[in-house]
Amino acid sequence: MQKTDHMFQNKEITEEICKRLSKNIPNPKSELIHDSDYTFLVAVVMSAQTTDVQVNKVTQTLFKEYPTIDDILRLDQEKLQEKIKSIGFYKNKAKHIIELSKILKEKYNGKVPSNREALESLPGVGRKTANVILNTLFEQDTIAVDTHVLRLSKRLGFSKSDDPLKVEEDLEKVIPNKYKNNISILLVLFGRYTCKARRPQCEKCILQDICCEYNK
Length: 216
Hints:
Elements: H1 11-24, H2 37-46, H3 52-65, H4 69-73, H5 77-84, H6 90-107, H7 116-120, H8 127-138, H9 147-155, H10 164-174, H11 177-180, H12 183-193
């Protein structure tokens, strides 16, 4: 495979990257603990600027004690804060979870909506969270850009930008349609375990020969 040292990979190399990632991670799934659409939404809201590992430590207990939207709504904000205080920004997140739960109950019969406008109107739900929900729960080809996706997009030559929205737009342009549904979670998992921020495992990376960063 021809090496490259420029940003924006050509179509052949981009397709090869996606192909190798898909083969390496054949069944990519979110690692957030959840057992319903509602608990997944709550978990994603809690995961902002917090690791999935830390969120799972909280939710494995929280969702066992309070598994439904009605159970969560029986908690007041202070009690929910106490339950999730080990995660970052827990006060704001508790407030958002109570507020969005009330809205879901009143406007959507307790169901998580499947359109972007409705999702982004919920407290604590921005574009990235909405993209995760639309992609994971409703199998829409949305691309969520978190820190892993941002980092790998630059290293692999998909985007030159540090702006999540611009990176999302660049990925929409360069990723082949058949890989768009899984590209976010593939990059997240690959970035979490192989192409790490501080100590990328380049010596055993399956993309070493076609990685822009490695071949500069």
